[in-house]
Every structure is written in structure tokens, then in C-alpha cells.
């Protein structure tokens, strides 16, 4: 049991630690943040980022990468800000079709053995174009229910944190506990053996992509609920944020080694890093660069930890 | 035993393969194989590498559909085929290379392997099934089923894989195919497994047992099928075989000792290469000019790792050294041998490009000359060296890799079991070239899983668990000594089979 | 007949065929009035994507997962720094160029250092690098738009016998790239690495050295492109590189280079760059908006790789 801790839990250690350190640093710099409203402000944008990170994580579970995540979330946001409030049925149909498109994409990538990076790169043009067609100029209006949900104020703990915990629990159940989760992680770990056990890899990949699209749709709706309006470029940085979030959370690019709880923590860390940098009064020129530096530091830490773990095992 | 067999021979066969033919490109892997497995028998399947054992196993488990011939489960002549159908008929397979998902826990791997484990609470049922099976086959094992498979040792993974195959989760296994199941188990674990196979078979289950350790096969199988060049050449009850008889049926070429080579005064000069013991264990390694050094032992015990490490330490990863010291002949062609997109010529010349170029620009005329020279010397059978490398048969691809290494000016050539699955004619041609190059002063370090190749070496190092455990010279090099040495660490109590 | 069959087998021929068709359709629509103008504009704007595309092509040749995402940031940084250094002084044109190249070398080395030291996939390494480079560009730029030296501005915007000078530069670079790729030891080596790193290593190829050189080459070409683009458009802008991220990958893929690595070609980049520009201008002439244009571009990219097909992923 003791050894058991050292694989899955160690994977979570670094992300949890970096989040804690960052949180402490923020509280130190800005003690007023240590309150309901303060936390609410700090983690305001965390929900859509977390959902997009989970979506990216599902794609990475089957050893692929989605470079269209940001444009897809923007597209969903545009749909949510235009069709959903006025014609909910058409809006829902569009979003369902988008999820189906993702499933088809997963199947095509598997059957034709195409590199996911390039296919999703092409799709990013498509989603971006569709978003511009739906909403040529920034605007639109959030569905009332999304707005209510995102701005609700549950007692004691802010909405963003409650939502993050719910997302973590739900996705942990889907990915780590359910049969479907075992299957898609198995595909990431050793496709051949899963195939030889008689499973349909096509269905598994299609399913993983569809589920990813579902979470990305939720991300788009949540984003509109927060911002109340949308534009075609609203979530472009989510592509990079979501990949970074998964990696920060201890996920790996190949091998089906992912952690939903870690991904949620990773997304929260990234959200917080933005606030932290602004508290530090780092000149805005260097904010992007500092984010790159944080990414590199965490990756270096992880490498160090993996080395230590390996040495431990080697003995 | 004969009586038992007679009573079973009346029952419906678990699987029945009739006149199965399979070819990969120009290579005929199976040339009409009949194989019938009945309930309650353990069929030992033996034959040299490339005889077609793995291919027939793949046909039976549905992973490969035969190009000609039929395969029928439980006598259903026109039944469904394919992986799912085979599994549906209770056919389970433990593969030679480990085939679990390293990122999943033991329990989750059980879920992957058993599609019948559905619904709520599958985790509990899977855990109970795999734990009880592990306890049953390997009493006293200490495997924690909630750990990820990637954290287990090789032997533990193999045990899990075997237990998963035998586990009964809503659907009992009818036929379990074991492909070299003992390759990474030590003697006591192997004996536990063999004992379980015997009880399982006595209880009416069927097993196909593939092993290169003939003693295991003779002691466990009820019937032995010998394969050679894609055909079944013998199929008789075990009682009618002896170890010698089996070896003969497999068609082993008894290597003639090249006594002429022994006379060479090798060990008097300075070694061209000497290495300290690997991982601080076992014996150190030495090689002399013009010597054929064999690396023996069971497969996967560190021979390839040593060759690769040796190569890496003696070639530049950032800059190419002016005078290459080592050249490498790959055994796993698809992994570190061929460049699939390239022509035969480009594959051949890639290691000597710096010699073929002026001011970093390749002299294509020179390159063609080099290609023609080696095409002649090593008899690469192709109409045009510009054809793609994959248009060649496996044996000829291997010759190209040989030519690639020999064309380099390096004094040391490393060979990573390159003759696996190569036909005997090609082998003889290559052996001749190796011998003549060694006469000219080149050193060959040759890892081989084929005993006849090891037997033509001047000196042999035997590996076990990543370290050199024995050094054999000249007349001491024979099958018996090598097998004995292969088990020196793992086997202490038992005489080698 | 035989020559024709050989030509059809070339992977780059399709991008040229498509270019010709789109050019023709556009000319038809405008009644042939603007044939020369359209061709000149196409050559000018294609030249920039050709230069970055060549660099990206070398990186993609290295095999699955190798992509340089720091290209746009690199372009912005070199454009900003070079223009600032030259400060509208004609005498500083060459030193400016030298600094741009040096910056490229530094960023290329940085990219590979991250890949190697942190053992992270090139996508994340070059992405992290691009954040840092972009920050440096923002810091240097400070929102001030400095004009390029007059001589340089003239050079980049004028033509030589009807052919834009930047297109000539792109052509010279392409010829060098073609020789490197098809005729040199280096070209063979990157193709080998793209097919199988273990096989390349065991054939005596200095894998790390070659990969480092390739990332440096890519960064230097992006840097050159930034230098030229900033001079062409009369000053550096912070978002001047952004559209070249997807563009550089798209022209390589459409040009018939194998996405899985190991098999690349230079002519296809010309075909693809001209094609993409002409598609945009064709859709513009038909009065279609940006949305349709983006969707079309995406569909074309996906269609091309669907037709070209992926290679077996190999065993890894």
C-alpha cells in the first residue's frame, strides 16, 4: 500500500504543491484576497479553463493532441451567445452536431492513421470560420440560465471552487473508475493489446473525442455565462492553456497516463498564475514570458521528480 | 495417458485449422497447416524461429485471417472468425512480448482482457477473480493487484498476464495459448506454472504450449507438434518423442566446428575492446582483433542492451566522428534497422555517406558504385537497387543491413541477433562473409538466439539478468554448456532440462 | 508519356495544379484585366510563407511530433529588434541582418535545449520558448513603430523585371534548401531521423547534432522572414507573425511533405503558398467573407492530408 502511494499520488504531488505555493504567495502579496469575494475574483475564469483542460486531457488520453480546442470553445461560445437564448432547439442541434463532428474526427484520425496535430490544426480554421460566420462582430447575449449558474453565490465557498470540485469528482469517476475510462486509458497505454482483447478501438477513440467535445461545449457555455457576450476570438488561448494545464497536472502526452484531479488543479494553477503575476506588478511586457517560464519550471520540477522516483525504483 | 487421449479424441475439437496458408509479401509463413486441438490436451508446439509457430497462433486467436484454408471453433465450419469470435469461444492468448497496458492497474487490465466484466461493481469482481487465480497458479506470490502494471517487475507482469488468461470471469477459458510463457520466470515459478497447466488440462481444458526449452515441453505436453518452414513435420503423442528425437525433427543443422579458426593466436595481443562488468555484476567483457565473440543466454537478458550501450558510447550523438569505430547490424529491422521510405541503395549507403561525399554533397556516382559492389558481393536479389527496401524479402533486407555495416570502415561490427527468421541459404552466405571479414582482422560481436550461430563463434559470453555469468571458449562451446550457464543465476536447485 | 507519368508521381505536382486552376478561375472572373497584378501580388505574399515554410519543412521532416511553434514570435522579435537597431540608417542594413540571424541561432539553440534537457515534446518546448520570445519582442517594441531604412524598404517593395525582389530572395533560399535536402549528407540524415530515430542512431547518424541544426535553421529562416516582412510592411507590429504559425504548417502539408516525417520536398511549398494566397484572393473577388475563407482553408488542409494519407505510425 505504501508503494501504491508513490505512483498515482506522486503524480498529483507537484501540481498540488505548486497550487498551494502559488496560493500562499498570492495571499502574502494581497491578504485581502483571503475572503469569499477575493477567492471569487481570483478564480473567476477558472471554470471554463478547467472544462477545456478536461476536454484536452481526454484527447491526450488516447495519445492525440487537439490544437483546435481554443477555436472550438470560441465557436461554442458564439453559438451559445446567439442561438441558445433565442432558438434553444437550433442551438442545441448545432452543438450536438459539433460533438458528432468530433466523434467522426476521432474515427477518421484512427482509421486513416492521420496525425491528430495536423487534422485538428485544419479544424481550427473550420471552427474559427464558422464562429465568424455565426457572429461576425463581438456581441450576442448569454442564455439566462448559464448566466445565473455562473454568477450564483453558494454559501461559504465561491462558485468557481464548488464547480471545480464537482468537475474533478465527476471526471475522476468517468476516467479513472468507469469501464469506459479504463478502456480509453488502455488505448493510450497499449492499443494493440486492447485490440487483441476484442475491443473496438474505433468506438473507443470516437467516444473519447465525443466526450472531449462535450466538455469543450460546457466550457464554451460557461465562458459565455461569465462574460455575457462572445466573439469569434474569445477563447483562442485555451488551446495552449488546456495543454499546459494537463501537463501541469501530471498528465503525459503519450501512454494514457492522465489524472483528471491533476488536470483540474493544473487549470486552477494557471488561472491563479495570471492573477499572481499581476499582483507581483511584473510589467505587462513580461507577463506572457513569465507564463512560459512558469511552465518550464514546473516541467523541470517534474523531470526531477521522475528521476528521483526512478532511482528509488532502481534500488 | 493414451487412454485419456482416445476418450477425448471423440469430442468436438476446440479449434480446427485446415490447410491454412499465410504469406507476408514474398515470404510464405504458413504453407498449408492442419492443427486440431481437442479438449483436455496440451499441445506442445516446437520449431525454430521463423518456422511459423507465432503465425499459426495468430490465426487461431483470430488476429490474422488465413489467406487460404479454414479455421473452425467448436466444429462450426462456417462460424464467425476474428478476435472477438475467438475470444467468444474461450480462446485466450499469452503473448511472447508482454501485452498488458502499463499505465493501468492489475485489476483494470483484467477488465480490459475480459469484456464480460460489465456493470456496477466490476472492480470487486475483477479483483476477486485475478487474486484467486494468482493465488492458485503462483501460491506465495506478492503482487498487489491495485498497483499499475508498469510498476511491476518483468516476471510479475508475466505472472499477471498468465493469471489473466486463465481467470474465469463469467466466461471460462477453453483454450489457453502460452507463447514462451517461462521466458522471464525463474525455475520455481516456471515449475508452478507447468504444474498448473497439467491440472488445468486434466480438468478438461486445452493448452497450446510454445517453448524453446524442450524439457518443459516434454514434461508438460500430451502431444507435440513440430513445425518447420511453415509446415507441420511431426504430430505425435509426447511419449513417442525424446529430446534428441525432437531436435532431429526440428531439423537442427548441427554446426560443424570451424577448427581452422581455432589455430589463430588471438588472445596474445592487446584487446581491441574491454569493458568492466555490467552494472557491477558478473564478468568483464573483452574482444580481440579478428575475433568472433558470441553473446548467448536466454533472449532479453541484456545482450541487446549491451550492444546498444556499446554502440552509443563509441559513436557521436552531436558530431559524427571522423573514423567510425563501430558498426551495427540490427535484428529488429522494423525498430532500428531499415528506413522504410527509402530505396535499397539509400538504405545501404546511409552509414557511409561521409565517405561518399565531397564538401557535404553526396557523390551519387560513388554511391551507385558502392551499391553495385555490395549487390555483387552479398548477392542482394533485386533487379534494381533503386527499388524500395520493403520490396525485398526479409532475408534480403537483412543482407542490406549487413552490407550497410560492412561498408563502414569500422573495425568492430556489432550484430544484434540479425538472423532471426532468415532462411538457411541466406544464413550460410552471411556466415561465409562474416568469416572472411574476420580473417581480414575485423572483430564481430554477435548476439544470437540460434545455437548453431553461437557454436561457430571463437568465444562466447553467456548472459543472465543483464550480466555476463560465464565465458566459454572453443571446445567448451556447445548447447549443453550454454544452457547450463544461462540458468546459473536463476537455477541453483534444479538440473537444467 | 513516361515523363508525364513521372511528373504525376511527384507529391508536389498537385499543389501546382490547384494553383493553376485557382489562378485561371480568378482571372476569368476579373476578365483577365489583372493577370499581371494578381501574379505579382501572389508572388510577393507567397514569398514570406515560403521562407518560413521551408524552415518548418525541415523541422517536420524530423518525424512525428516535430513542429516549431515559436515561428511567429521569432518573426516578431527579429523584425522589432532589427528595425530598432537599424534606426532608418542605410549603413546599418547588414548589421541588422546579422543580428536577426544571430537571434535566430540563439532561439533555435534554446528550443532544442528545452526539448533535450526537459525531455518534453517539441510542441511544448517551442511553445514555452515562444512565450518568452514574444515577451522579449513586446519589451523591445514598446509600441513604437520604427520605419525601415529607405534602401531596405525600397528593395523589399520593388521588383526586378516584373518579379518582386522578395520572391527572388525566396527563390534563392529555396534553391539552397533544395540542395540541402536532396543532395547533401544533412538532407539524407534528417530524412533518416524522420523515418526512425533508433535506426538513424544505429546507422551512425549524430541524431542530436542534426536535430539541433534543424531547429536552428528553422529559427534563422523565421528570423529572416521577420526581417524582410517588417521592412516590407514599413515597420514591425507585435502581431505580424501570428498568421504565419498555421500558415507555415499548412503550406508544408499541402505541398506534399509527409506529415509523419522523412519525406519532404521544396517545390510543393511554392505551389501551396501561391495556392493559399490565390484562394484567399479568389474568395475575395467573389465577395465572400473571412468566415467562408477560413472554413475553406481548413477543409482544404484536411482534404489534402486525407488524400495524401498518413503513414503507419510505426511501433513506437
Automatic annotation (TrEMBL), chain A:
Pfam families: BPD_transp_2. Keywords: Cell membrane, Membrane, Transmembrane, Transmembrane helix. GO terms for cellular component: plasma membrane. It is a multi-pass membrane protein. The keyword Transferase does not apply. InterPro entries: ABC_transp_permease (IPR001851). The keyword Transmembrane helix applies. One of its GO terms (molecular function) is transmembrane transporter activity. It is found in: Cell membrane. It comes from the Bacteria. The chain crosses the membrane at residues 12-29, 41-60, 90-109, 116-136, 156-175, 206-228, 234-254, 261-280, 286-305. This is ABC transporter permease. It comes from Paramesorhizobium deserti.
Automatic annotation (TrEMBL), chain C:
This is ABC transporter permease. It is found in: Cell membrane. It comes from Paramesorhizobium deserti. InterPro entries: ABC_transp_permease. The keyword Iron does not apply. The keyword Transmembrane helix applies. Keywords: Cell membrane, Membrane, Transmembrane, Transmembrane helix. It is a multi-pass membrane protein. GO terms for cellular component: plasma membrane. It holds the Pfam family BPD_transp_2. One of its GO terms (molecular function) is transmembrane transporter activity. The chain crosses the membrane at residues 12-35, 41-62, 93-115, 122-140, 160-181, 212-232, 244-262, 269-286, 292-310.
Amino acid at each position: 500500500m505504501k508503494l501504491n502511494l508513490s505512483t498515482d499520488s506522486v503524480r498529483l504531488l507537484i501540481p498540488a504543491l505548486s497550487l498551494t505555493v502559488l496560493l500562499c504567495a498570492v495571499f502574502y502579496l494581497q491578504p485581502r484576497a483571503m475572503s469569499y469575494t477575493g477567492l471569487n475574483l481570483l478564480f473567476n475564469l477558472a471554470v471554463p479553463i478547467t472544462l477545456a483542460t478536461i476536454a484536452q486531457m481526454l484527447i491526450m488520453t488516447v495519445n492525440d493532441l487537439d490544437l483546435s480546442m481554443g477555436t472550438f470553445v470560441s465557436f461554442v461560445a458564439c453559438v451559445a451567445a446567439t442561438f441558445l437564448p433565442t432558438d434553444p432547439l437550433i442551438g442545441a442541434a448545432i452543438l450536438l452536431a459539433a460533438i458528432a463532428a468530433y466523434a467522426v474526427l476521432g474515427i477518421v484520425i484512427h482509421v486513416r492513421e492521420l496525425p491528430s496535430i495536423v487534422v485538428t490544426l485544419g479544424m481550427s480554421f473550420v471552427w474559427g470560420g464558422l464562429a465568424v460566420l455565426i457572429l461576425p462582430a463581438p456581441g450576442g447575449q448569454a442564455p439566462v440560465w448559464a448566466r445565473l449558474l455562473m454568477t450564483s453565490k453558494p454559501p461559504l465557498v465561491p462558485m468557481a471552487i464548488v464547480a471545480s470540485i464537482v468537475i474533478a469528482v465527476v471526471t475522476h469517476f468517468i476516467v479513472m473508475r468507469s469501464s469506459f475510462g479504463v478502456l480509453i486509458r488502455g488505448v493510450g497505454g497499449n492499443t494493440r493489446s486492447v485490440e487483441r482483447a476484442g475491443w473496438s478501438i474505433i468506438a473507443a477513440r470516437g467516444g473519447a473525442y465525443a466526450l472531449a467535445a462535450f466538455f469543450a461545449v460546457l466550457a464554451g457555455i460557461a465562458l459565455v455565462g461569465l462574460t455575457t457576450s462572445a466573439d469569434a476570438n474569445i477563447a483562442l488561448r485555451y488551446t495552449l492553456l488546456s495543454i499546459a494545464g494537463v501537463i501541469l497536472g501530471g498528465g503525459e502526452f503519450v501512454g494514457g497516463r492522465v489524472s483528471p484531479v491533476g488536470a483540474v488543479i493544473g487549470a486552477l494553477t494557471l488561472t491563479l498564475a495570471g492573477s499572481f503575476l499581476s499582483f507581483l506588478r511584473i510589467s505587462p511586457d513580461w507577463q506572457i514570458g513569465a507564463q512560459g517560464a512558469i511552465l518550464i519550471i514546473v516541467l523541470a520540477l517534474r523531470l526531477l521528480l521522475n528521476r528521483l522516483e526512478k532511482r528509488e525504483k532502481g534500488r | 495417458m493414451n487412454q485419456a487421449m482416445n476418450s477425448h479424441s471423440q469430442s468436438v475439437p476446440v479449434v480446427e485449422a485446415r490447410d491454412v496458408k499465410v504469406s507476408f509479401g514474398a515470404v510464405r509463413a504458413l504453407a498449408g497447416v492442419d492443427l486440431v486441438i481437442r479438449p483436455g490436451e496440451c499441445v506442445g508446439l516446437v520449431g525454430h524461429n521463423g518456422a511459423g509457430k507465432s503465425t499459426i497462433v495468430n490465426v487461431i486467436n483470430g488476429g490474422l485471417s488465413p489467406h487460404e484454408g479454414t479455421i473452425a471453433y467448436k466444429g462450426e465450419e462456417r462460424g464467425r472468425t476474428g478476435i472477438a469470435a475467438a475470444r467468444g469461444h474461450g480462446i485466450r492468448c499469452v503473448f511472447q512480448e508482454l501485452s498488458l497496458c502499463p499505465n493501468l492497474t492489475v485489476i483494470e487490465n483484467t477488465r480490459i482482457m475480459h469484456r464480460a466484466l460489465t456493470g456496477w461493481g466490476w472492480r470487486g469482481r475483477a479483483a476477486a477473480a485475478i487474486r484467486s487465480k494468482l493465488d492458485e497458479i503462483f501460491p506465495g506470490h506478492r503482487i498487489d493487484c491495485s498497483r499499475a502494471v508498469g510498476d511491476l517487475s518483468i516476471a510479475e507482469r508475466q505472472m499477471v498476464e498468465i493469471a489473466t488468461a486463465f481467470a474465469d470471469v463469467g466466461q471460462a477459458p477453453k483454450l489457453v495459448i502460452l507463447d514462451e510463457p517461462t521466458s522471464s520466470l525463474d525455475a520455481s515459478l516456471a515449475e508452478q506454472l507447468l504444474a498448473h497447466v497439467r491440472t488445468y488440462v486434466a480438468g478438461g481444458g486445452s493448452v497450446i504450449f510454445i517453448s524453446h526449452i524442450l524439457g518443459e515441453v516434454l514434461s508438460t505436453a500430451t502431444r507435440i507438434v513440430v513445425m518447420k518452414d511453415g509446415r507441420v513435420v511431426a504430430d505425435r503423442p509426447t511419449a513417442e518423442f525424446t529430446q534428441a528425437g525432437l531436435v532431429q525433427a526440428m531439423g537442427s543443422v548441427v554446426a560443424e566446428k570451424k577448427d581452422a579458426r581455432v589455430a589463430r593466436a588471438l588472445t596474445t595481443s592487446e584487446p581491441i575492446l574491454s569493458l568492466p562488468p555490467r552494472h557491477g555484476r558478473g564478468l568483464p567483457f573483452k574482444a580481440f582483433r579478428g575475433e568472433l565473440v558470441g553473446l548467448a543466454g536466454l533472449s532479453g537478458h541484456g545482450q541487446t542492451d549491451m550492444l546498444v550501450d556499446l554502440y552509443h558510447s563509441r559513436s557521436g550523438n552531436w558530431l559524427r566522428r571522423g573514423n567510425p569505430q563501430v558498426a551495427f547490424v540490427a535484428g529488429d529491422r522494423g525498430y532500428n534497422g531499415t528506413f522504410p521510405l527509402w530505396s535499397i541503395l539509400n538504405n545501404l549507403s546511409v552509414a557511409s555517406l561521409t565517405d561518399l561525399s565531397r564538401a557535404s554533397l553526396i557523390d551519387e556516382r560513388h554511391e551507385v558504385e558502392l551499391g553495385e559492389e555490395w549487390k555483387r558481393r552479398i548477392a542482394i536479389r533485386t533487379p534494381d537497387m533503386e527499388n524500395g527496401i520493403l520490396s525485398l524479402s526479409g532475408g534480403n533486407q537483412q543482407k542490406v543491413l549487413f552490407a550497410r555495416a560492412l561498408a563502414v570502415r569500422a573495425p568492430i561490427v556489432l550484430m544484434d541477433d540479425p538472423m532471426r527468421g532468415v532462411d538457411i541459404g541466406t544464413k550460410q552466405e552471411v556466415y561465409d562473409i562474416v568469416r572472411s571479414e574476420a580473417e581480414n582482422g575485423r572483430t564481430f560481436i554477435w548476439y544470437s538466439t540460434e545455437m548453431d550461430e553461437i557454436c561457430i563463434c571463437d568465444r562466447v559470453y553467456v548472459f543472465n539478468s543483464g550480466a555476463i555469468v560465464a565465458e566459454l571458449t572453443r571446445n567448451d562451446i556447445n548447447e549443453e554448456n550454454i544452457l547450463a550457464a544461462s540458468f546459473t543465476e536463476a537455477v541453483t536447485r534444479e538440473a537444467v532440462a | 508519356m513516361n515523363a508525364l507519368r513521372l511528373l504525376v508521381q511527384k507529391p508536389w505536382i498537385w499543389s501546382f495544379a490547384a494553383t493553376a486552376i485557382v489562378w485561371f478561375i480568378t482571372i476569368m472572373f476579373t476578365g483577365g484585366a489583372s493577370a499581371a497584378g494578381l501574379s505579382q501580388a501572389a508572388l510577393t505574399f507567397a514569398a514570406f510563407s515560403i521562407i518560413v515554410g521551408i524552415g518548418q519543412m525541415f523541422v517536420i521532416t524530423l518525424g512525428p511530433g516535430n513542429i516549431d511553434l515559436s515561428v511567429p514570435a521569432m518573426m516578431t522579435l527579429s523584425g522589432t529588434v532589427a528595425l530598432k537597431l537599424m534606426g532608418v540608417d542605410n549603413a546599418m542594413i547588414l548589421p541588422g541582418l546579422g543580428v536577426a540571424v544571430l537571434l535566430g541561432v540563439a532561439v533555435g539553440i534554446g528550443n532544442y535545449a528545452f526539448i533535450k534537457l526537459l525531455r518534453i515534446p517539441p510542441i511544448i518546448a517551442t511553445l514555452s520558448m515562444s512565450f518568452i520570445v514574444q515577451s522579449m519582442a513586446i519589451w523591445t517594441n514598446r509600441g513604437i513603430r520604427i520605419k525601415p531604412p529607405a534602401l531596405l524598404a525600397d528593395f523589399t517593395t520593388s521588383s526586378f523585371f516584373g518579379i518582386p525582389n522578395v520572391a527572388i530572395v525566396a527563390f534563392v533560399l529555396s534553391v539552397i534548401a533544395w540542395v540541402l535536402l536532396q543532395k547533401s549528407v544533412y538532407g539524407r540524415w534528417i530524412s533518416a531521423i524522420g523515418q526512425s530515430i533508433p535506426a538513424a542512431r544505429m546507422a551512425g547518424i549524430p541524431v542530436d547534432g542534426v536535430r539541433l541544426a534543424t531547429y536552428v535553421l528553422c529559427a534563422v529562416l523565421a528570423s529572416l522572414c521577420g526581417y524582410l516582412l517588417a521592412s516590407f510592411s514599413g515597420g514591425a507590429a507585435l502581431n505580424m507573425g501570428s498568421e504565419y504559425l498555421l500558415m507555415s504548417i499548412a503550406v508544408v502539408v499541402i505541398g506534399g511533405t509527409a506529415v509523419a516525417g522523412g519525406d519532404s520536398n521544396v517545390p510543393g511549398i511554392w505551389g501551396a503558398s501561391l495556392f493559399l494566397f490565390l484562394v484567399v484572393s479568389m474568395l475575395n473577388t467573389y465577395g465572400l467573407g473571412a468566415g467562408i475563407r477560413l472554413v475553406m482553408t481548413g477543409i482544404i488542409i484536411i482534404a489534402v492530408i486525407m488524400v495524401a494519407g498518413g503513414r503507419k505510425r510505426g511501433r513506437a
